[in-house]
Model the fold of this input.
Amino acid sequence: MGARPQRTGSRIHDISVLVDNGFPVWPGDPPVHLELGSSIASGDSYNLSRLGSVGLHTGTHVDAPNHFLAEGKTVDQIPLDALIGPARVCSLPAVECVTQANLEQLSLTGCERVLLKTRNSEQPWATQAFKTEYVYLAPDGAQYLANLGVRLVGTDYLSVGQYGDGTADTHCILLSKGVVLLEGLNLSQIEPGDYQLVALPWRVAAGDGAPARAVLIELD
Done:
């Protein structure tokens, strides 16, 4: 039996944020409460931690269409091939929001998964208090991506849409087209370019979203 072929120069980048007590959550969501229930150091035979009540949109997470659409697919119904495959990281460091005009300057034709790296990634937001003035995707930018046939959009803060947007236009435009949203990414150490994305959310029954572990695979 011959030796297995080896991939050379491959690197795996974890683009999930580290969730711990004090992690910023969307206003109104339950705070993260992680505690050690059993401890070897305290004489127990094993370590066993407990994660208290936590929102499904905590940390790096997936939004399912059902998040804003009553008849939309839930997170356990999202096709896995939308969450695994080629992805392009696009750097937009100097914008306050990502518009259609911004996106038209990029080469996105044929891209199925687009991850937006903005000035959000310039600060360790996962260890700071929640901020309302983050960079978001404008509705016209969302419509542009939907029209291109993009299957997944990723962002480097806890929401793809603007804070205080009562109509949730950006979410609804994308989710109504079946576009999966991957929010709360850590893109601070990621160079723009093409990667292989793997982002698998918890398989929560009828969930409107779920936390996810997301990685980018770089191949030479």
